[in-house]
Amino acid sequence: MVSTRSTSPGQLPTRVAWDGNPPQVDAARARLLEATARCIARDGLAATSVGAVAAEAGVSRQTVYRYFAGRDELALRAIFAASDALRRRIDSQLAPLTEPEDIIVEAMVLGLGEMRSNPVLHAIWDSSSLDALVAEVFTEPGGIAWAREAFGRAVEAAGWDEGYANTALEFILRVGLSLLISTAPERNDEELRAFLYRHLIPGLGLGASGED
Q1: pLDDT attached to residue 9
Q2: Alpha-carbon distance values, 145 to 46, 80, 111, 128, 148 (Å)
Q3: Per the confidence metrics, is the pTM higher than 0.90?
Q4: Three-state secondary structure of 81-120
Q5: What is residue 196's DSSP assignment?
Q6: How far apart are CA 62 and CA 40, in angstroms?
Q7: In terms of C-beta density within 10 A (0-12 exposed, 13-18 middle, 19 or more buried), how is residue 100 classed?
Q8: What is the mean pLDDT of each run of 10 residues along the chain (212 residues)?
Q9: 109, 148, 124: which is closest to 47 by C-alpha?
Q10: How far apart are CA 121 and CA 119, in angstroms?
């Protein structure tokens, strides 16, 4: 049997090899994605390869290819898994908010902060290892779909139709991408809120909710 090891909140699961007893398909894919996440967090996205994931999981490269097409699929799915967990945390914390501009600004502030502290998300946003794969995530259909879930309450509160919502969400993602890539000038949370209320919110056609 394959043993499991408990971890503290925020920590990635530790490596546990299959030891000749491979799990079922869904469990196998999940464990390979956990191995991918550990590789990204420890070594960075650029150094994460099929071989590295195989070694981390204690399996052969052929085993990895049995479940995933290659490095890009592994990385994308690991990124989306970390991002989806982030989305759920943000949605829970912002539940009391009702105004679309407040939801968007607070989601951006919380999201940017957590992306810099989460071991996987922080590693992929390290400017020294950022590659085209990550930028693609933000504007491909999967990225827009993720944003639709993350900002769904804001879209509903703003009354945006499908076409406008997709354009607005792409704009939000591109602003978030630029803020992640370039950390200068440095802003604390209050300064970032003021910046977003002043520049992002009007660009979305929303009110400033009383902020300067």
Answers
A1: 44
A2: 25, 11, 16, 27, 5
A3: no
A4: HHHHHHHHHHHHHCCCCCCHHHHHHHHHHHHHHHHHHCHH
A5: I
A6: 20
A7: buried
A8: 42 50 78 94 90 95 94 88 87 92 95 85 67 63 80 94 92 87 81 95 78 45
A9: 124
A10: 6
Tokens linked to 120: 């996987």
Q: Strand ranges (DSSP E) for the chain?
A: none
- Give the DSSP letter of residue 157: H
Q: Encoding tokens for residue 3?
A: 């043993």
The residues, ordered by sequence, that sit 6+ positions from 35 with a Cβ below 8 Å of its Cβ are 15, 53, 56, 57
Decide: helix, strand or coil at residue 155: helix
Closest alpha carbon to 87 in 136, 142, 165: 142
Tell the burial category of 57 from Cβ atoms under 10 Å away from its Cβ (0-12, 13-18, 19+). Answer: buried
List b or e across 144-166, with b for residues whose CB sees 16 or more CB atoms inside 10 angstroms: bebbeebbebbbebbebeeeebb
Contacts of 54 by beta carbon, 8 Å cutoff, 6+ apart: 60, 61, 63, 64
Assigned token pair, 68: 């995933």
Distance in angstroms between the alpha carbons of the first and the last residue of the chain: 60
Give the span between the Cα atoms of 27 and 13, in whole angstroms.
14
